[in-house]
Amino acid sequence: MENCIEISGLTKKYGTHLAVDDLTLSIAKGEIFGLLGPNGAGKSTTILMLLGLTEVDSGHVKVCDIDATRHPLEVKRKVGYLPEDVGFYNDYSGLQNLVYIAQLNNIPIKQAKKDALLILEEVGLLDAKDKKVGTYSRGMRQRLGLAEVLIKEPEVIILDEPTLGLDPEGVRKFLQLIVELSRKKGITVLFSSHHLHQIQQVCDRVGIFVKGKLLAEGKISDLAEQLFSKNTFTTELGITDSKEITDTTLNEITEKISTIKNVAKVTSHGSHFSIESKSDVSGELSKLIVGLGYGISYLTKKEYGLDDIYHKHFQE
Ligand SMILES: Nc1ncnc2c1ncn2[C@@H]1O[C@H](COP(=O)(O)OP(=O)(O)OP(=O)(O)O)[C@@H](O)[C@H]1O
């Protein structure tokens, strides 16, 4: 698959502080890639280098086959960048702001107006097009920011913590919009955030970035497999009985569960059990519990998500 972003051996120091440490990463055309990491991990610094806005100490960055360090202006034409907070002319309407940006990007006025209306519709701001931006909500401002990015018809969009300050519904709609636009227009997206749930919702692939280093990278399912390969399955089980369940019976049940094939670890808290295993043991488990004369209040199979992956990395 054709790569749209290629980073190799990228390093950036601020004084003696290593902000980005030998980063190598490729992002395919049309892919939505999530750069996940806590504050100070080096995400913004990496983005600045991708945009050719800060000098690189060593390594290479290519965006759409253009060397970002040598040709930052050419990269700027291909890339739309949405920072945490976008500045607008608050006394201008949404439409006026957008047309102005289009003209700055050398789009003739007639075309700019036509494009602006289409894009305002795409980002759901057509009804608010004539309102002054100063009266826009935070969610509307972010969508207008996205419209400003889109009017340049970019091949790549870079989003740096784009959902800060949005309410949950605003976040949901904004993320949905990103996915729709990327799929519809084949735009490559680099989504930088410390919100793992947001990254998990939208990204095809993710890189976990901590202290300037890429700790892991891949599809969420592959990362889970790499990290939890020994005991990939976790089953949560709750049991009931007409009588009170004593510690002795709980210990006996724990022992019996441990004898099921492929079960590696059983922990219990009261009548709740957590079972780690190499294969799906839910069928055997329910047979065993019912056979012992207990009821099952719940039996859920847990799939590993990005938060498990993230926390496991921090544990280690
Ligand atoms: N201009 C600068 N001068 C000196 N140090 C800097 C500069 N910019 C960033 N840093 C330091 O480099 C490290 C990485 O910062 P960066 O902003 O890239 O992280 P981040 O992952 O984007 O975090 P955040 O989400 O907080 O912006 C941090 O320790 C930061 O303090």
UniProtKB/TrEMBL annotation:
It comes from the Bacteria. Belongs to the ABC transporter superfamily. Keywords: ATP-binding, Nucleotide-binding, Transport. PANTHER family: ABC TRANSPORTER, ATP-BINDING PROTEIN (PTHR43335:SF4). InterPro entries: AAA+_ATPase, ABC_transporter-like_ATP-bd, P-loop_NTPase. The keyword Ribosomal protein does not apply. One of its GO terms (molecular function) is ATP hydrolysis activity. This is ABC transporter ATP-binding protein. PROSITE patterns: ABC_TRANSPORTER_2. Residues 5-236 form the ABC transporter domain. CDD domains: ABC_DR_subfamily_A (cd03230). The keyword ATP-binding applies.
